[in-house]
From TrEMBL:
One example GO MF annotation: phosphatidylglycerophosphatase activity
GO CC, any one term: cytoplasm
NCBIfam families recorded: HAD-SF-IIIA (TIGR01662), YqeG_hyp_ppase (TIGR01668)
InterPro entries: HAD-like_sf, HAD-SF_hydro_IIIA, HAD_sf, PGPP1/Gep4
Gene source species: Fructilactobacillus sanfranciscensis (strain TMW 1.1304) (Lactobacillus sanfranciscensis)
Lineage: Bacteria, Bacillati, Bacillota, Bacilli, Lactobacillales
The protein's name: YqeG family HAD IIIA-type phosphatase
Length: 183
């Protein structure tokens, strides 16, 4: 398999939308944008590190989404065991070892669940993994704030890079701001 080499551009990190949290996103706005499936990152996007959101609340949200015609699939870089345990009580499918920012996990997900790029959106708390991966797959993306501020060490490095990239994005796209929902 041949991999094309190309220069990384600022726009590779540009999210389609920026929303306060996954839990702010409404089914109505998703449907207005032709989206019926959320691909969500796990850690600090769907589930906080410190379990400050109970399983019940997450389940309620997933049920609300399903009732409104929106499917939720977890796409995580974490290992299958960790993701399996985290997602078990939530009764939603998952793809682990996604290798974000590479396109592998998202491509696999589209294929396995017979989804087109247009009907999905990738939601995640990191520009350097979730949003970059979405752009590598030419799908829409929503950058959300991390549910908990503390991060593991590798994420801290990404956070630093992220703050540099976000400053540049802000300069180029002054309207790119945190919103209550997509639009
Ligand atoms: Mg995350």
């Amino acid at each position: 398999m041949r991999r094309e080499r190309r220069v990384v551009m600022l726009d590779d990190f540009k999210p389609t939308w920026m929303v306060e949290s996954l839990y702010h996103i409404s089914p109505e706005k998703l449907k207005e944008n032709g989206i019926d499936t959320i691909l969500t990152d796990l850690d600090n996007t769907l589930i906080p590190w410190n379990n400050s959101i109970g399983t019940n609340k997450i389940n309620e949200w997933i049920r609300f989404m399903k009732e409104n015609g929106i499917n939720v699939i977890v796409v995580s870089n974490n290992n299958p065991k960790r993701v399996g345990i985290a997602v078990e009580k939530l009764d939603i499918p998952f793809v682990a070892h996604a290798l974000k920012p590479l396109n592998r996990g998202i491509k696999q997900t589209l294929k396995r669940f017979k989804l087109t790029p247009k009907q999905v959106v990738m939601v995640g708390d990191q520009l350097m993994t979730d949003i970059w991966a979405a752009n590598n797959c030419h799908i829409k993306s929503i950058w959300v704030k991390p549910l908990v501020e503390t991060d593991m060490f590798p994420t801290k490095i990404n956070r630093f890079l992220e703050s540099v990239v976000y400053k540049k994005l802000k300069k180029k796209y002054p309207n790119l701001n945190w919103k209550e929902d997509i639009y």
